[in-house]
């Protein structure tokens, strides 16, 4: 389904960025074409005369299998650290995020079994989700299933244009171990949530569409044949004389490497938020 953007990491107690993230369910080029046709027909463009946007309310739902930290019941300090990372990454985009509430639910079934589009994630979201289109709900769970090749699911997000058709599904599901200070070396500084929120505000992967076509629909992110891992300085996967955007938050490089959104991405996310989430943004 095109509304999901999913990330994987090699499963281990300590995981090095080798190869790191791998994409699972992504939006196809045909689905991008459909979504972009609707976007262009309904597009609202934020402008400099608009009032500054209020912060986005964040409802952080900690779902744990028991009351221990090892069981997923992470302390407030890690959530506050994650919020700081998120706001630092989006500085200059016109978006800020305010922690509205932390909820805590002990439910081993949800913690162990939530997965994209299954009955457990539907139950969880219907029970816990708060707010409307412009409110961000984040759910931390175990996502423990080893997948083909040993990859482990890190998180997945919905896109803004999916809200009207499935409002209760809206939000981000995150592997609890990917919060700052987690065990995945190279992905332990909270940038995975930045990446997932990038999808939630309307951005595609930098490598969407590969070297041809319209790519990620942003003109100032160079085309990229495939996701980049670790931090391969000088990588030129399309052999077009332009290096890959490995420092972009919407690639799969490690946390130290990902440091930026481009002006084109900022313009896009502002318009996506105005069009689909009723959030006029200026920066």
UniProtKB/TrEMBL annotation:
State the Gene3D superfamilies in the record.
Answer: Collagenase (Catalytic Domain)
Residue intervals of the Peptidase M43 pregnancy-associated plasma-A domain: 155-273
Leader sequence segment: 1-17
Alphabetized Pfam families for the sequence: Peptidase_M43
Q: Which domain of life is it from?
A: Eukaryota
Annotated GO biological processes are:
proteolysis
Q: Which GO terms describe its molecular function?
A: metal ion binding; metallopeptidase activity
Q: What does the UniProt keyword field contain? A: Disulfide bond, Hydrolase, Metal-binding, Metalloprotease, Protease, Signal, Zinc
Q: Which family does it belong to?
A: Belongs to the peptidase M43B family.
Q: What is this protein called?
A: Peptidase M43 pregnancy-associated plasma-A domain-containing protein
Organism lineage reads as: Eukaryota, Fungi, Dikarya, Basidiomycota, Agaricomycotina
């Amino acid at each position: 389904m095109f509304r999901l953007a999913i990330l994987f990491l090699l499963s281990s107690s300590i995981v090095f960025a080798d190869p790191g993230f791998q994409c699972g369910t992504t939006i196809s080029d045909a689905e991008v074409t459909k979504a972009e046709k609707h976007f262009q027909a309904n597009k609202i463009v934020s402008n400099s005369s608009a009032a500054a946007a209020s912060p986005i309310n964040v409802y952080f739902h900690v779902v744990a299998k028991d009351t221990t930290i090892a069981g997923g019941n992470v302390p407030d300090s890690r959530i506050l650290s994650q919020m700081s990372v998120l706001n630092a990454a989006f500085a200059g985009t016109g978006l800020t995020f305010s922690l509205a509430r932390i909820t805590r639910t002990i439910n081993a079934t949800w913690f162990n079994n939530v997965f994209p589009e299954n009955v457990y994630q539907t139950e969880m979201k219907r029970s816990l989700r708060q707010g409307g289109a412009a409110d961000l709900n984040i759910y931390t769970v175990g996502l423990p299933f080893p997948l083909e090749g040993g990859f482990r699911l890190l998180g997945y997000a919905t896109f803004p244009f999916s809200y009207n058709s499935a409002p209760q599904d809206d939000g981000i599901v995150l592997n609890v171990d990917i919060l700052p200070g987690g065990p995945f070396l190279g992905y332990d500084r909270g940038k995975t949530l930045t990446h997932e929120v990038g999808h939630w505000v309307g951005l595609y992967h930098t490598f969407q569409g590969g070297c041809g076509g319209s790519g990620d629909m942003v003109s100032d992110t160079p085309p990229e044949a495939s996701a980049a891992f670790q931090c391969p300085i000088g990588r030129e996967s399309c052999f077009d004389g332009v290096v890959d955007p490995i420092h972009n938050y919407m690639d799969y490089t490690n946390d130290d490497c990902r440091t930026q959104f481009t002006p084109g991405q900022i313009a896009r996310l502002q318009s996506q938020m105005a069009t689909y989430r009723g959030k006029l943004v200026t920066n």
